Amino acid sequence: MPSELENAMESLIKVFHRYASDDGKSTTLNRRELRSLMENELSNFLQSQKDPAAVDKIMKDLDTNGDGQVDFEEFVSLVVGLSIACEQCYKMHIRKSVKH
Ligand SMILES: [Ca+2]
């Protein structure tokens, strides 16, 4: 039976490929697919970004090899960045609940 962490990794791969396969080219996300993924799977984060061009900027940041597509490796850096930010909040939350 897969562990909790293995399940999380599998989810990451599945979600990426579900959106990446929208255009029949399943190995990368184009701009529209990235927008769709973020609107559905990262809606809280996206709503916190007041900038309407946020997805375009994120796309530009993620596309490190400059091919206009986001591959899995590039996508993972977004997840890692957001996870690090979330973990900061989580630590603050723990510290607060310990004090009470
Ligand atoms: Ca790319």
TrEMBL record:
SMART domains: EFh, S_100. The keyword Calcium applies. InterPro entries: EF-hand-dom_pair (IPR011992), EF_Hand_1_Ca_BS (IPR018247), EF_hand_dom (IPR002048), S100/CaBP7/8-like_CS (IPR001751), S100_Ca-bd_sub (IPR013787). It comes from the Eukaryota. GO terms for cellular component: cytoplasm; extracellular space. Signal peptide: none annotated. The keyword Ribonucleoprotein does not apply. Residues 50-85 form the EF-hand domain. GO terms for molecular function: calcium ion binding; calcium-dependent protein binding. Keywords: Calcium, Metal-binding, Repeat. PANTHER family: PROTEIN S100-A1-RELATED, S100 CALCIUM-BINDING PROTEIN. This is Protein S100.
